[in-house]
């Protein structure tokens, strides 16, 4: 993800310097765009708050963009807060299920630990722009756009994500290879999905609930989607009025089966098990057995679609139903940036946001989601980055 | 498996002493029947041929019964050969797929490494009785019985294994918990299944080939069975004439789905992967995540059935079809022996064989399968152990 951010940012003029940090300094160095003196590599342990603070001080960082997996949200977030700099991420602090009614009530919500720090961020006059990838991120921007420009009243905001990406093996046959971090995908899909309803607030359901076939644009077509725990459901109701907010992921029947089996066998667990003389997290072993999603771009084909489906009453007072969407073709992202589609689509949005913050078009203090800002300049700048969005009326 | 062997043998008089050896001496000690001075515990590394030879010498062992998983067949087999003692096992040396046509041709067959040592065993006048559990084992005895007493000509001998065992979790709901070593089950089910046909010899197919619904006796009923690599297919044609020999395992659709997913994700692999700072075999991690099958007996209910289905021409010259079978109820094995049904059913057969060898009713030299011996005394003695077999005419 960091490599794609660097490749996208390298084409822009809005920043003076960008430090790409990784646990493995060689990996950080490989992410640096060629012949661009604005970029530097550094080594850092993302679980070590003090080390991150030292890195911020050493390079006089003004904005920390967290591009690692959500296990490391809190130390990076706390380091930015402590160092008094602005912060962005693409996924929020992890949830914990309700101790007695996990499939009915929210326990600790996604991002709850970050919103708890809201007063301190506001007092310090600093901004934590949370959930600023594609989903959450662009999907939240779409929700704000719909509320401001398309609807007078919103019944439901449903994020819908689907793709027709296929990865082929050495023999040219399709292979099983998730296009995004399996660690995060397991976390999202096996946690109790969260749903928001006005009057009732946030509640949870069984995993894979409310299956529906959603017809995606471009040539993706119909995909089976199910409820999944995702930040948008927590973020959108804070700034956008809607009677219901959901997130459904187009996993498809095969992938749902794989996730159910991993859960059934306990292979989704993150607590270590003893194997021979060592201790390992089963979920880390699953991830180690699968190819690194970031390396799959040249064996992948197809498109991925992120978007926000909105129903309600249009500004003209008549019923309206739209799907605001952003489709990315893997062939294009590979040719232009050498990044696979899902990674590129996630990475482009925080770069757009950084540019809006750098120019002052977006500004704010506290812990804010993307829907707290004006959607139009964001969508215009995304289009200027060469990646237009679309709208489908039902 | 060793604990069940000891518990069963403790009720018999045919031996002077039995040493239960394990990598973990405390585990060996726990397997000793109470207040029976014939039993002793020892520590041994089953992968260390010299250590096994030393153990044989120390205790003046006459028969080595290998009751560990098939990865350790060769060092134990070689140690017995080198020490000049008799040997029994319940699974044979592992196969390796054909390098270019794994789903058509046999590469290295199950037991091939053991049969290669046949001349040396014969020269030494010592017996290696291989595949002497329930399947292989009792199933091979059934095949010999059918050939000697029921048929004048055999068309097909098909081993068919099915169960209705259910394991319940702490909340009383059924949980996923294989009743036999998952390591061995993965090995059996994902290796190319082997089939024997007179004239063509041994050949392999794709995993899970030739699905059929087989109606099992007792109250087990119909279960989906598929071809699986198993020793009987290699053993039976060496001693019993048949036009076709197969092994089909009643895995059921759910378990077949689990195995396919493990394979798809590479979690069936035994070669280590790097996870953080350590290296582990993914298959060992899968096993570590599941409950130890030997500990499930008191949470298990139902019956397991092993048997041999035979079609051909009866001794009266008319078409005949029979299913010779052995059904074990988990409630009975738990009450009688404190062992779960599948473990007990596997363990009882080598004890019966040891008793027949001790009494001289069975004798032989070389590397022999169970079907090389007279079936009747075996089946009679099994019944005398309290566990009768049955026959169903089609």
Automatic annotation (TrEMBL), chains A, B:
It holds the Pfam family Sacchrp_dh_C. Residues 133-386 form the Saccharopine dehydrogenase-like C-terminal domain. Residues 1-128 form the Saccharopine dehydrogenase NADP binding domain. InterPro entries: NAD(P)-bd_dom_sf (IPR036291), Sacchrp_dh-like_C (IPR032095), Sacchrp_dh_NADP-bd (IPR005097). This is Saccharopine dehydrogenase C-terminal domain-containing protein.
């Amino acid at each position: 993800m960091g490599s794609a951010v660097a490749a996208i940012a390298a084409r822009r003029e809005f920043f003076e310097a960008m430090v790409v940090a990784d646990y493995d300094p060689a990996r950080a160095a490989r992410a640096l765009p060629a012949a661009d003196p604005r970029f530097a590599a550094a080594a850092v342990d993302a679980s070590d708050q003090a080390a991150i603070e030292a890195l911020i001080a050493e390079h006089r960082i003004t904005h920390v963009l967290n591009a690692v997996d959500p296990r490391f949200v809190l130390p990076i977030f706390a380091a930015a807060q402590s160092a008094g700099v602005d912060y962005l991420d693409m996924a929020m602090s992890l949830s914990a299920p309700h101790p007695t009614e996990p499939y009915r009530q929210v326990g600790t919500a996604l991002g709850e630990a970050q919103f708890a720090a809201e007063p301190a961020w506001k007092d310090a006059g600093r901004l934590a722009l949370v959930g600023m990838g594609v989903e959450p991120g662009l999907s939240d921007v779409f929700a704000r756009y719909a509320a401001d420009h398309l609807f007078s009243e919103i019944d439901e905001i449903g994020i819908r994500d689907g793709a027709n990406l296929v990865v082929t093996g050495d023999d040219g046959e399709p292979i099983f290879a998730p296009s995004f971090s399996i660690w995060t995908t397991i976390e999202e899909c096996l946690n109790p999905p969260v749903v928001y309803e006005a009057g009732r607030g946030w509640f949870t359901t069984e995993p894979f609930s409310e299956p529906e076939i959603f017809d995606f644009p471009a040539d993706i077509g119909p995909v089976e989607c199910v409820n999944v725990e995702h930040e948008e459901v927590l973020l959108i109701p804070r700034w956008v009025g809607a009677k219901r907010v959901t997130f459904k992921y187009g996993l498809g029947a095969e992938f749902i089966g794989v996730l159910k089996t991993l859960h059934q066998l306990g292979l989704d667990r993150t607590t270590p098990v003893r194997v021979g003389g060592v201790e390992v997290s089963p979920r880390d072993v699953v991830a180690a057995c699968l190819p690194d999603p970031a390396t799959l771009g040249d064996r992948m084909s197809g498109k991925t679609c992120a978007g926000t489906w909105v129903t309600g009453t249009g500004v003209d007072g008549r019923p309206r139903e739209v799907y605001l969407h952003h489709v990315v073709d893997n062939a294009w992202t590979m040719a232009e940036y050498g990044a696979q589609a899902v990674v590129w689509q996630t990475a482009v949005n925080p770069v757009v946001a950084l540019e809006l913050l750098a120019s002052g078009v977006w500004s704010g203090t506290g812990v804010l989601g993307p829907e707290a800002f004006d959607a139009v300049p964001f969508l215009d700048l995304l289009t200027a980055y060469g990646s237009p969005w679309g709208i489908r009326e039902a």
